[in-house]
Amino acid sequence: MAVELTQYAKIKDNYCLVYLGSCEEYLLQLLLFRPIFERKYSGISIYLCSRNVSTTLDGIERTIKQKDIKDMRNMFAYIREIAYDRQHPIEELLKECDINEPIEVTPRSGENRCVIFSQGSYPTRSLDSGKIKQACKVARQVGYEVEIDTDVERAGWVMGVENQWVVRAAASGLRTTLISSGVGDKLFKTMFPAIEILDLEHI
Asked: How much is the pTM?
């Protein structure tokens, strides 16, 4: 559909990245990289769209829900849907846009408590009971108390497969260990160079 020139002038710098899957960490990764995209491509404004049931981006400016995207379509010069297709979609987007800089974080400490977040959404595999026990052993060997899938707020160390809680911990500056599932390792190292990668298959 053709857009009038005056309308195009108003929307030409507005872009919308749409992710409608169940991996909430992808939304957080897009949110963390948004300032970097906007610095690299000066003048653009990036909106993020999530599925209706998602609360990850609630209250954050320039975010919308799936139910609103149809009515708001005329606000955007370009709408791009992000989806998993055998490659990590956020990593592929960064390659396409030639972005490889890390997320700036300020290291902070917490309690002597390690929280292990075991749950992943496809394509990330959740930890089974055996791997949870292995991860607990790693943390206890260096003197940490361990909790499973509880609260990140008072943790001094967060371990887990790729999920929103591991992203939140790393972005907040907590000591963070990604338990490798073979999906997001490279992206996490790009985002957070100080992050530890733990492969439970080889311990």
From this structure: 0.92
